[in-house]
Amino acid sequence: MARLGAALCVVPPEPRLNPETGEARKDREGNPVWVVGVAVRQLEKRRADVLEIAVSGEPPGLTEGARVVVVDLVATVWEIDGRHGVSYRASAVRTQGAAPVSAGRGKAASGGDA
Questions:
Q1: Residue-wise pLDDT tens digits, 41-74
Q2: Residues 36, 38, 105, 30: what is their CA dihedral angle, to the nearest 10 degrees?
Q3: By the 8 A CB rule, do 10 and 38 touch?
């Protein structure tokens, strides 16, 4: 995230659903996985991207247009049945200036089914 400019929430948090069953996905600890759309810009470039970032637990207080801080962002390259892409996961996405959330609600566990 240090090489990226401002980060803005462009899609408020929503539960990540299993496309086959419609049920909410869970991480390894059984917490629901949420997805936040975050627009980021590479420093000194005009290019902007929207990252769909998965987090464990519902991030509190995120609204469209809010500046956000992404904590411990991890990008994972994947390929399944000829399709490929990059999945993004973070331990937290919170509004800029917000205090870290204590263990439990909103705090992500490592790994999981994102």
A1: 877 777 888 999 999 999 999 999 999 999 999 9
A2: 40
A3: yes
According to CATH, the superfamily of the domain at 4-95 is: Nucleic acid-binding proteins (2.40.50.140)
Parallel/antiparallel/unpaired status of strands 92-95 and 68-71: antiparallel
Q: What pLDDT digit, counting tens, does each position of 67-99 carry?
A: 999 999 999 999 999 999 999 999 999 998 766
CB 59 within 8 A of CB 94: yes
Which tokens belong to 49?
């991207």
Token pair listed for 83: 């399709």
DSSP 39-94: EEEETTSS-EEEEEEEEESPPTT--TT-BEEEES-EEEEEEETTEEEEEEE-SEEE
Domain positions in the chain are 4-95
Q: Report pTM.
A: 0.78
